[in-house]
Amino acid sequence: MMDNLRSAANNVVLKIILALIIVSFVLTGVGNYLIGGSDDYAAKVDGQTINRAQLEQAVQSERSRLQQQLGDQFSALAGNEGYMKELRKQVLSRLIDDALLDQYSRKLGLGVSDDQVKDAIRTMPYFLTDGKFDNAKYLDVIARMGTTPDNYAELIRQQLMRQQMIQAYTATGFTLPAEVESMAALTMQQRNVRLATINVKGLVAAQVVTDEELKAYYQQNQNSFIAPEQVKIAYIEMDAAAIQDKVTVSDGDIEAYYDQHKSDFTQPERKNYSVIQLKTEDDAKAVLDELKNGADFAKVAQEKSTDIISRKNGGEMGWLEPSTTPDEVSGANLTEKGQLSGVVKSSVGYLVVRLNDITPEVVKPLSEVKNDIATLVKQQKALDEYYALQQKVSEAATSDNESLASAEEAAGSKAVTTDWFTRDTVPAALNFRPLVQAVFDGALIGSDGAPGSNSDVINVEGDRAFVVRVISHKPEAVKPLDQVKDQVTAQVKRQKAEQQARMQGDKLLVALQSGKGEEAMKAAGLTFGNEQTLTRISEDRQLADSVFALPQPKDNKPVYGMSADSQDNVVLIQLDSVKSGHMDDKDLQAFSSQMLTGSTGIIFDSLMSNLRAEAKIKLGSGASDMQ
């Protein structure tokens, strides 16, 4: 498989596609981990340094992501030293992979154009009005997303790059028809079963619980009865969007911005090339002679080019800007439409290049971009006022740490006071991770329930900021037994009922498997229900997994098993028969595509394995915490 990968990668156009993946890592922040030169490094990848600060930043980012995703569960995991070492190890491994991909990209000399990004954004349905791109709607939507046009464009760039890479690799893969049919039959297999359910809920009422059992369960499960930490806070909010509504922009402001940023409104010169790739110099010379004698370039490319991607399009590579044109193509120095190069030596063989067309550099007139500039200038003015307000409020909150009175005066608005809330019940207006962390990390909380100190300015997404003050605090505590007695009683009864149901199920299963099930089932007041058909994708996954784990019946004798349903009831299973699955041609084709897509992941894994095997990777003292 790696041989196929290397063969596919050995052409000019695929170089460009591969570049898209690598550039996306750099533009979305991963590149920040791959620069820097501290001697206290975490790893060196073929001489490229990943220093300790970069690793710590990446680990903190991953911690924050997991905290947001798992909440209190992650707090428990974070207390496990072994888990945190493994987390650091995984983060460093990812940074090393990023460095390897970055180096591989540079080795291939890859690049990417901005045109695809612009076209993709302009066709997205949520930016359209009456079927046409609406720039005002676009700016409004991404502002509410808490991002900027540049950052959003890079996000779209990353998505397009991944799509192109997947398409490039998938085109080189295949699955055997027999393999697909066999897997489809197994996936769509059906099993006919009868079920008998021991209802746990029906057994709960009959359970008797002693005070000793309640106390024992409470002592063993105190973490289940914790009253979470609670706070009341006062806060002042600063919002750049609200400031922007009051900002005015003059024509002079717009003209000054246009003159200072004219390059932002300039489309650089672009050239459309076609290329024919050959293995030897003699082959390239022969092709060049054909073309000079009037042969059709596209036809020759389709018949003779070794570039498996561009030859499908008659050798055409599409529109490229100077910054995204491979060196061997730009080095041909073609300047006129229809001009042919000589034989060009490259790292992948020999090329013959034709310049199909040229679009000159174009500067958009002020009249065309005036509205866009007005929006940008208005945003910038609002941000300037917003940051000035932050500084003013910050100084006031710091100089008068006994209350928010001075900060209120500086902000020109009164502080808002909340009711009690926990980490899990943060008011929607305050539910931002930096703010929640600041409130609950302890630094703002006073001792013995007294009011705490003022925070500094806390910036959150969407160009908003807060200054907060914890005015009341209740620490986390275990609720006394008398407050949770009813809850404990219900849980103990449920636990005893589940144990009784499992014991009863075990006995009945033994009787069924030994041929004495009819009497045992009758004595228990249970019968198997009507036959039903289960598949691997049945709604009750736990039950389906148990059914498909049973051996197939032989000699028309049923097979018995035991499982649990989604309500944790004990379920006895009688498996009567198994039927092979079937897909029609349309579904089989879709299934084959899914299998092929799955194999794409194997190709990427192979690529990374190969890059790691060939690289010199050295761990430094910055990685000592995981060694």
From TrEMBL:
Subcellular location as annotated: Cell inner membrane
Residue spans crossing the bilayer: 12-35
Entry's Gene Ontology cellular component terms: plasma membrane
InterPro entries xref list: PPIase_dom_sf, PPIase_PpiC, PPIase_PpiC_CS, PpiD_chaperone, Trigger_fact/SurA_dom_sf
Superkingdom field: Bacteria
UniProt keyword annotations, A-Z: Cell inner membrane, Cell membrane, Chaperone, Isomerase, Membrane, Rotamase, Transmembrane, Transmembrane helix
Start and end residues of each PpiC domain: 268-357
GO molecular function, one term: peptidyl-prolyl cis-trans isomerase activity
Bilayer disposition of the protein: Single-pass type II membrane protein
Pfam families linked to this entry: Rotamase_2, SurA_N_3
Recorded family membership: Belongs to the PpiD chaperone family.
NCBIfam families hit by this protein: PRK10788.1
PANTHER family the record matches: PEPTIDYL-PROLYL CIS-TRANS ISOMERASE D, PERIPLASMIC CHAPERONE PPID
Protein's name according to its UniProt entry: Periplasmic chaperone PpiD
Organism expressing this protein natively: Enterobacillus tribolii
Upper classification of the organism: Bacteria, Pseudomonadati, Pseudomonadota, Gammaproteobacteria, Enterobacterales
